[in-house]
Amino acid sequence: MTKPIPNHSLSEQVTLTLEHYFETLQEESACDLYEMVIQQIEKPLIEFVLDKTEQNQSRSAQILGINRNTLRKKMQKYDLI
Length: 81
Fold this sequence. Notes:
The chain has four helices and no strands. By secondary structure, the chain is mainly alpha-helical. It has a domain of 51 residues: Homeodomain-like (Arc Repressor Mutant, subunit A, Orthogonal Bundle), CATH 1.10.10. Helix 2 packs across helix 3 and helix 3 packs across helix 4.
């Protein structure tokens, strides 16, 4: 089942999520924010494209605009192989 798409762009969704993240930190400090955000976006993006291409890595790499070897490395990083 697909969730309704809110009236926000992906960029706006990221900003709203980051605002919520910082609001919930309270007294704690943020660290490794860049890597955390990249991982949170990159893994589902790769999973989604692989699913849409029926696990065709060459086609997925082409859609993502990355080299097939780079895709395989990222798949290994996120335990998708």
